[in-house]
Design goal:
The protein is of the alpha/beta class. Helices cover 34% and strands 27% of the residues. The protein has 15 helices and 18 strands.
Length: 407
């Protein structure tokens, strides 16, 4: 819904780092015909940088205001976010959201709501900060030639790994610095565990392949168990560790999603993506590899991405979900093999992993490791157990088709 003057009257939910960043960016964007009328917050007693007249604790003050024609949702709680976004769409108000966990969990319902109400939901800000990945997948790569999406989708974990490999800091030291600079939350598990990257990858899969994938069906492993021995192995072999999210078409009718640390070689684009930056490689038939790079953390980069969505909506833009409309949607599968490095301390932990083939192994008093091929379906089966074990996993190359599974 756009008013006669093509002006966006915004109701904003959330005034944290990104919300305040958006307010600052919008204030300095003189060509954007948009203004924030009301901001809904949780804590009215918290000291704010704006007049109290902006703020409310009642969602209805935004959702029931007929003058407000665009809702911008920037809160942390995913279920509250879904309630806000779905209510706004039902009332005919278009929405801009940055809540990747909410989107990954509820995209089927939200796509249906857009069809029913005619309101639009934009969320480029939910994936990769300032990099316009979603819109590129929707518009430039709006065909069925896409082969893979590979990237560093989380700036916080990348910052930590950069400190470890470039400045030889420990994992705990690096996390504390990321928290001090505002790149990591007080509880860093969402970023370091790979979950943030997972939610973004699920969203990218909708626009890259047209497929709606349940996050529970995707293997994810993070860097929280990274130890000095893993760092030493990577350095000695000429690798850098990066937390990588990957969507790979494994044959013409299937594709795989996974999030895992990767042993990255110096000839790969993401080898030199450092600090809080993100890097995304889009590969397709005929156009080969395209690389996008930009800041993935911080209030102003993400606020700028939200502003881009606001401007796009001002001109009537909406996602068409072209891959779902015009092409055969490939099937998500975990029936692939992946070459991994597994570091473990005791044989009981190792016994849970059913390797197809072992290429290299080392057994030591303090730690052991193996390098070999394993089915991703096996890793999915023990995903929750892995989180309780003293092990570290990293992969080397994109998944290979399990030939016996091809029909």
């Amino acid at each position: 819904m756009i008013n006669k003057n093509n002006k966006q009257i915004i109701g904003l939910f959330g005034f944290g780092v990104v919300g305040e960043g958006l307010f600052h960016v919008l204030k300095h964007s003189h060509t954007t015909n948009a203004t924030i009328k009301k901001i809904c917050i949780l804590d009215p007693k918290k000291e704010r940088s704006l007049s109290k007249d902006y703020f409310t604790i009642e969602a209805a003050d935004i959702l029931d205001d007929k003058e407000i024609n665009l809702v911008v949702e920037l809160i942390n709680d995913s279920e509250d976010a879904f309630h806000i976004v779905s209510q706004a769409l039902r009332k005919g108000k278009s929405v801009v959201s940055g809540n990747k966990k909410m989107l990954a969990a509820h995209l089927p319902e939200l796509i249906q709501l857009q069809k029913e109400t005619g309101a639009a939901l934009l969320y480029d800000a939910s994936a990769c900060g300032s990099i316009p990945v979603i819109r590129n997948l929707e518009e430039y790569y709006d065909n069925d030639l896409l082969l893979s999406i590979t990237g560093i989708l989380n700036g916080s974990s990348n910052f930590v790994l950069s400190k470890i490999f470039n400045e030889k800091k420990s994992y705990p030291e690096s996390v504390k610095e990321a928290q001090r600079l505002g790149f990591a939350e007080a509880d860093p598990s969402l970023d370091m565990g790979g979950w943030d990257s997972l939610y973004k990858l699920v969203i990218l899969a909708v626009h890259g392949f047209g497929a709606l994938v349940n996050p529970d069906d995707v293997f994810v492993s993070g860097i929280a168990n990274l130890q000095a021995n893993d760092i030493r192995f990577a350095r000695e072999k000429g690798y850098r560790l990066k937390l990588v999210a990957q969507a790979t078409k494994v044959n013409g009718k299937r594709f795989n999603l996974m999030v895992m640390p990767k042993m990255v070689t110096e000839d790969e684009y993401i080898y030199n993506v450092e600090n809080e930056y993100n890097g995304v490689i889009i590969e397709g038939s005929f156009y080969e590899k395209q690389f996008m790079f930009g800041k993935g953390a911080g209030g102003h980069p993400t606020g700028s991405s939200v502003l881009s969505d606001i401007t796009a909506r001002m001109h009537g833009y909406r996602y068409e979900y072209k891959k779902r409309k015009y092409f055969s949607i490939p099937e998500h599968t975990n029936d692939v093999k992946v070459k991994v490095y597994l570091r473990f301390k005791n044989l009981l932990d190792f016994s849970h992993f059913e390797f197809e083939e072992i290429e290299e192994k080392l057994s030591g008093r303090e730690y052991s490791y193996v390098i070999g091929s394993i089915k991703l379906s096996n890793l999915i089966h023990i995903r929750k157990l892995i989180q309780t074990l003293d092990v570290f996993l990293a992969f080397f190359e994109e998944p290979a088709v399990n030939e016996s599974a091809i029909t």
